[in-house]
Design a protein that fits this description.
Elements: H1 2-11, H2 19-28, E1 35-36, H3 48-55, H4 58-75, H5 85-98, H6 104-118, H7 129-145, H8 148-168, H9 173-199, H10 205-208, H11 214-224, H12 235-250, H13 255-258, H14 260-266, H15 283-296, H16 319-325, H17 328-332, H18 337-341, H19 350-358, H20 385-396, H21 402-415, H22 421-431, H23 437-453, H24 457-474, H25 489-500, H26 505-517, H27 520-530, H28 533-536, H29 548-552, H30 570-587, H31 591-599, H32 622-626, E2 629-630, H33 632-645, H34 650-656, H35 658-667, H36 682-707, H37 724-729, H38 745-749, H39 751-760, H40 791-811, H41 834-862
Parallel strand pairs: 1-2
Helix pairs in contact: 2-35, 3-9, 4-6, 5-6, 6-9, 7-9, 8-9, 9-12, 11-12, 11-24, 12-25, 15-20, 21-36, 24-25, 25-30, 26-36, 30-33, 31-36, 33-35, 40-41
């Protein structure tokens, strides 16, 4: 009896003591069997043998490559292994020169022989696999030393130019197919040469010196495919070559992490880099906390932001920010194309149903508008201590990312109309001295690449997504086919392209915007929904007996005595993780885009319908099915995408998916203000998400228009040149207003000449109306100003007159707000219409000028 009781007590131990106990409890829970694929290592490149085998399909290995060998034996003569080094070099130089021949058959024959040599003569005379790979590396090194890289590149450019001419002339299809074969040979030569040298970690000075840049040229070729006949064009090899060139020039997926500090220095970002913070908070979290606290406790004085920011208004996208930036009309006229082009397919819009679900009040949640409990603080006797502690905790755990800093900086520039751009640019250039020359060249290369391809980026995205859709629909079953399955290089290309634009966040956001507007989110969900993920990542689609190395390397390696527990299809696992990463990057901290995933039912089980447009859902939640595969990287990004949707999925979904919620807590980082599981007021999030998306799009237009394409600049409002402090605090003017007024340095140097020329010595024949003492409630100043008055005194006197007129104008209808005053406060100042407020400010300015003119005339009379 006692043993049974002890066993029960042991079973009911508190599982929430430590994260380790939680993990043990989760593992012990009864669940469906997962498919373990932990042995697969997620990386953007594989060994040279596998990369070459992936590049050539099975038909090429069986038919085309033996033809290349026969072509070599017909023209070259002696076997490559028995040829001396001098004869090899002379033979290679002869073949490279033949690529410039006018006759197409001579060029194609020379290219086939060069491919045969670049492939290590297909293993002729090799003792083992390592010897074969060594021959490939040695032959490509010899080609590189013979000047093959610029020769192959120029031959590819000539062939692509001829392909363009044939398409424009609507020539015979046979001619287009012939030139496409030639282009494919040049792509193969460049791929083998670049990948072999990249795997050997060789230097790439010559690759960077090509004019025009190879990356820029390949992107331009992809952009032109939108209007071309692409049925016979080797687009797969084109994209794979572009991927390898980007890896060689910019590095792989791990490169952005190592460049993070250098990019910060280039952007002048040398603060708020607290890597040891466990629970981080963003400037937007602190901004929202301060606004909520001040509304509940008007006497609360929030702590200052722990980073240099001229205006807190730039932290959050609001209508006030749009007015300060002068983009109110542009904001009102900006629409979101993806909402109209890719609406939800079933029932009412998801936003309405989700809002209806979230409108149900949680009886266990505390009222959001009630004040916090006591005790009160000693320094601020009308503020609870918990509020003060929370504000200090937000400041202590503040983490500003480089992307957040760049967006705030761009908003400040928009507010000040880029008046201080030259000054800020000089300040930023001072930090570049701390960066090595190699990093400078890399950053300049990325900048030049973006500047070149930005006008064609829309076409590039459309071509990649179309090719991606076609390759997936052709292999939608996901099981073994007779032909080699598609590698899906477009997912790799999109991932690399997103990473390559991250030296400034608005470049990355522009690419993300194009992907979302082109339906990338829906396409990825459709691709993942068409497949059964557990069968996809375990499908043995590779046929080793049809591969390149099987055909030309007869000495097989000894097979391993032990077999893997579960086969992992590395290709399918790789692009599945890439798709999830793209989903996460496109929707990270963007509520409006997260709602697209919710509308597409990516996380919710749906009923079976006959509509073929919903066939991709497979009657199950797409993202939940991804969790059936046990792999740390795949699970992490699946949970990240699910976490962003949880606040909008309702209580029923949460109650039925507590295992997923527990996994999110265990795998994903927790922020300081992480209320994703208990959020109730989602309507505000939806409104803020819409404002954030529109403001981001206008920022993108302003950034690209300022630096690359002036036609993208949005139309600005016709507003007064008041400072942002005046716009933000009117009718409550403070002494801080003068700190935000910035004058031209040239004017500051020559202000005395301007005063004598425009003020003291100017002859004004206009009659100044006399202002009596009764007309103005402020007495005239007793001292008479003279021409020798100091400039600071003049500025202070003008400012004093302006403040007196301003206070008189607005004190007639409202009292000044006293933050330390108890009881109700006057609220009439919040009812001012914008047009009325503008007219009243103009009257204040006019009366100030009239008073100053009178004082000036009196000063001239006294003199």
């Amino acid at each position: 009896m006692s043993q049974g009781k002890a066993a029960k007590e042991k079973q009911h131990q508190d599982p929430l003591l430590t994260p380790g106990h939680i993990k043990q409890v989760v593992k012990a829970l009864p669940s469906k069997i997962k498919h373990p694929h932990d042995r697969y290592k997620y990386q953007d490149t594989e060994p040279l043998k596998q990369e070459i085998d992936e590049f050539f399909n099975y038909s090429e290995a069986a038919i085309d490559l033996p033809d290349y060998r026969r072509e070599y034996n017909r023209y070259f003569g002696s076997p490559w292994k028995t040829t001396s080094d001098a004869d090899r070099r002379s033979g290679l130089e002869l073949l490279i020169d033949q690529l410039e021949y006018v006759q197409a058959n001579r060029r194609i024959s020379a290219a086939k022989q060069l491919v045969y040599i670049s492939l290590g003569c297909l293993g002729d005379g090799a003792c083992d696999c390592d010897d074969y790979l060594g021959t490939i590396l040695a032959n490509n090194q010899l080609l590189y030393e013979s000047g093959a890289l610029p020769a192959f590149y120029q031959a590819l450019r000539r062939a692509c130019a001829k392909h363009d001419a044939l398409n424009q002339q609507s020539s015979d299809i046979d001619q287009i197919i012939e030139i496409s074969i030639e282009i494919e040979l040049y792509l193969s030569l460049l791929y083998l040469l670049i990948e072999s040298r990249r795997q050997a970690e060789a230097s790439w000075e010559e690759l960077a010196s090509l004019t025009p840049s190879m990356i820029e040229f390949l992107f331009s070729v992809i952009a032109q495919l939108r209007e071309k006949y692409v049925k016979s064009f080797p687009y797969k090899k084109l994209i794979l070559l572009l991927w390898k060139v980007m890896l060689a020039a910019f590095g792989g997926l791990d490169k952005p992490k190592s460049l993070k500090e250098d990019v910060k220095k280039l952007n002048g970002f040398q603060f708020m880099d607290k890597v040891d913070i466990v629970a981080k908070c963003t400037p937007l979290d602190l901004y929202n906390f301060q606004n909520e606290s001040v509304l509940k406790y008007p006497a609360y004085t929030p702590p200052k932001f722990p980073f240099p920011v001229s205006e807190t208004l730039t932290i959050k996208a609001t209508s006030a920010l749009a007015s300060a930036m002068g983009i109110s009309s542009a904001t009102a006229n900006t629409d979101l194309p993806y909402q109209a082009l890719f609406p939800p397919k079933q029932g009412q819009p998801a936003t309405q149903s989700i809002t209806k679900k979230q409108s149900q009040i949680n009886p266990f949640a505390p009222p959001q508008q009630n004040a916090f409990a006591l005790p009160l603080t000693e320094s601020q006797p009308y503020v609870p201590k918990s509020i003060s502690e929370a504000g200090n905790l937000f400041v202590k755990n503040m983490h500003m990312s480089l992307s957040t800093y760049q967006i705030i900086h761009e908003r400040e520039k928009a507010i000040h109309k880029w008046q201080n751009e030259s000054k800020k640019q000089l300040e930023e250039n001072d930090n570049i001295t701390d960066v090595s020359e190699k990093i400078k060249r890399l950053m300049n290369s990325i900048e030049h690449l973006y500047h070149t391809i930005m006008p064609e980026l829309q076409n590039i995205i459309i071509v990649l997504l179309k090719l991606l859709l076609s390759t997936v629909t052709n292999n939608s079953n996901g099981t073994g086919n007779a032909a080699k399955p598609t590698h899906n290089p477009n997912s790799i290309e999109a991932q690399e392209e997103i990473d390559a634009t991250r030296n400034h966040v608005l470049k990355h956001e522009y690419l993300s915007q194009l992907l979302v507007d082109s339906g990338c989110l829906l396409l990825i969900l459709k691709i993942l929904g068409l497949q059964e993920i557990t069968a996809l990542v375990a499908a043995q689609t590779d046929r080793s007996d049809h591969g390149l190395f099987h055909h030309f390397y007869t000495k097989k390696e000894e097979s391993s005595s032990t077999e893997e527990i579960l086969y992992t299809n590395q290709r399918n696992m790789f692009w599945s993780i890439n798709f999830l990463r793209i989903l996460q990057m496109l929707t990270k901290r963007k509520t409006n885009r997260v709602m697209l995933l919710v509308q597409y039912k990516s996380s919710v089980r749906i009923s079976c319908q006959s509509d073929k447009t919903l066939a991709y859902c497979h009657k199950k939640a797409i993202l939940k099915r991804m969790l059936k595969v046990s792999h740390p990287v795949l699970e992490l990004y699946t949970l990240k995408v699910l976490k962003s949707q949880v606040p909008y999925l309702g209580r029923r979904w949460k109650s039925l998916n507590m295992k997923i919620i527990s996994a999110i807590y265990l795998q994903c980082h927790t922020a300081l203000r992480d209320d994703w599981i208990s959020k109730i007021d989602t309507d505000t999030d939806l409104e803020d998400g819409m404002a954030q998306e529109i403001n981001l799009r206008i920022l993108i237009r302003m950034y690209n228009g300022q630096h690359y394409m002036p036609s993208m600049l949005p139309q600005t409002d016709d507003t007064d040149t008041l400072s942002i402090s005046m716009r933000q605090s009117i009718p409550f003017i403070t002494e801080d207003m003068k700190d935000n007024i910035e004058l031209d340095p040239e004017f500051m140097e020559n202000y005395e000449k301007w005063l004598y020329a425009e003020v003291y010595d100017s002859e004004d024949d206009t009659e100044v109306p006399e202002i009596k003492q009764s007309d103005v409630d402020t007495p005239l100043p007793s001292p008479i100003l003279s021409a020798q008055t100091m400039p600071d005194t003049l500025a202070m006197e003008i400012q004093r007159l302006y403040l007196e007129e301003l206070n008189q104008e607005f004190n007639e209808t409202s009292e000044m707000y006293d933050p330390m005053r108890l009881g109700p406060q006057p609220t009439t100042e919040a009812t001012f219409d914008q047009e009325v407020l503008t007219l009243r400010l103009q009257q204040v300015e006019k009366r100030t000028v009239e008073r100053w003119t009178i004082l000036e005339s009196q000063s001239d009379v006294c003199i």
